[in-house]
């Protein structure tokens, strides 16, 4: 008995980023109480990237700025151990769970790694194609278009068979990719029960297109939203990475009677809307799962093929079990991948699951926010 208590617990590092990525990692970690779990904002030890961070040049990325502040605040609020860039505790981890494979430091690549998809990826721009053709690191694309496609991690947990096919086509070994579903997008029916005060409106979920150095005609987009809404109430939910004062002023100019939210539970707003208008936002998948009419800059039929599986909120548990089995597995990685099975049931996008299914509580509402 005494000898057992002296055996050190194995340690897992969860790499976080946006509020949605942070929430997903928290859900998975909460189901691994038999391990010591630590967290870190996505980081780099590359001299050039560290210089950019020190000068505020990367404040609109998940490496720093508002994303870093929100991530640190979330960890503090929930009493989670913050080992930023492995500089606080300096542990050698038995497993690393990553929200992105665009930037994985050399030290983390030496450990067991599991990638967890957050949501949709950005469109592939001409610049992104060029960086990919030149075999530059994925982050050189300056967006998330190649997230999940670097083939760096040992195991890839993805939202749907459609995304498995996409990531494999774009560079990741299909044998590494497991369809587990992803937390925050796997139980849309549960969102129908909420206390958001408005109903029956046309909702607009904006994206941080300009903040990520891409072109956008926002006044024209607002005019399209007004046209789609017709006589119905418009409600705008701004992306957390947007320059809010500018965006609010533009909406007031083009749609003066619209409701505008900069905070709040995006998923509840979608559950209560009649129609959903998005740009490059993952939250379109909530609308699709709930059978809403949706608009997107992406092809909607393609989005329906990519949409995350609805498994009643079982994704976090499936990923946690996978992490537990992998951290304890003694053989080679290839053997683990050959023998593992996720056991996740894929259900119809429009199936209305029972809303009393257990899932990790999230009272702060840090669910999809992009």
Itemize the secondary structure elements and their pairings.
Elements: H1 2-5, E1 11-16, H2 19-30, E2 36-41, H3 47-54, H4 65-77, E3 81-82, E4 95-98, H5 106-109, E5 113-116, H6 126-133, E6 155-158, H7 161-169, E7 177-179, E8 202-205, H8 218-229, E9 234-237, H9 244-254, E10 259-261, H10 266-271, E11 275-278, H11 284-289, E12 293-295, H12 300-306, H13 315-328, H14 333-339
Parallel strand pairs: 1-2, 1-4, 2-3, 4-5, 5-6, 6-7, 8-9, 8-11, 9-10, 11-12
Account of the protein in words:
This protein is α/β, with parallel strands linked by helices and 370 residues long. The chain folds into two domains: 9-186 and 309-339, Rossmann fold (3-Layer(aba) Sandwich); 188-306, Rossmann fold (3-Layer(aba) Sandwich). The protein contains 14 helices and twelve strands. It has helices at 2-5, 19-30, 47-54, 65-77, 106-109, 126-133, 161-169, 218-229, 244-254, 266-271, 284-289, 300-306, 315-328, 333-339; strands spanning 11-16, 36-41, 81-82, 95-98, 113-116, 155-158, 177-179, 202-205, 234-237, 259-261, 275-278, 293-295. Strands 3-2-1-4-5-6-7 form a seven-stranded parallel sheet, sandwiched between helices. Strands 10-9-8-11-12 form a five-stranded parallel sheet. The chain is globular, with a radius of gyration of 20 Å. The protein starts with a helix and ends in a 31-residue tail after the last helix.
